[in-house]
Design goal:
Helix content is 60%, strand content 12%. By secondary structure, the protein is an alpha+beta fold.
Length: 280
Amino acid sequence: MLNKWYPWENRFKSRFGIQLALHIVVIYIILRLFFEVRFPAYFGYDELMERQTVIIGVIFSLLVTAVFAAEHFFYKWNDARLLTLEMEQLTTQAQLEALKLQLDPHFLFNNLSIVTALIEDQPAVAVAYVAKLSSIYRYMLTNRAQNLIPLTEELEFIKNYLFLYQIRYGAGINVRIRDMGKALHSSLPPLTLQLLIENAIKHNVFSTGSPLNIHIYFPGGNAMIVENNKMPKATTEPGTQMGLNNILDRYRLMNQQAPVIKDDGAFFKVEIPLIDSDNY
């Protein structure tokens, strides 16, 4: 009952005072009952001894209440430590999944082939391509230990990431990113956007005539929605839902509102709650 109405976390002073008062009342009742029977007279107890016993009882109540409070906060601290370790593990996993994707031999071969082709025909684009590729690795290595990253930095990273795909697929991928508005100063777990966009690219068939349209927008300034049209592949790719599950787990461990996933058959939409890093 006390945990429900007076939790230690939110109402520490009230909870400590009420629990101390209850302990004192219980000990006082026990002492009064003790002194009502003949034991005190039999063992030589007098009024002074009774007062001393009551004072000792109050001190004992204070110590017991302090022990209860210390035990509660020790378990809370231990739980928080375990959550932090699990969060770090998931963040590392997301980084590894992203790096695994980028270091995949096919990915590197495709990018090197594109750079080789661009050097002859479009040297300026080739230089930009290499610069974007290096910035992707720099971003992932720099932010690998972070739980949160500013939305502005994540969007800048994803523009570099999309540049590679748009050079490769041309008009086969269309990405629209609306103005951030009130979401300008918000944050989110690093690589969230990369995992969502990679999920869309990985599980859909698209071409110049039937492009993959990805729409990123920020309703109300407290959420980010990533939406794409569905043109699913005939066979399911390995690792389906892995990226989405990683995002869901990280939000759960940060005690944040869970992302919402909607699939109506024609469109796939993920709503990501944005986080105020000052209050995290």
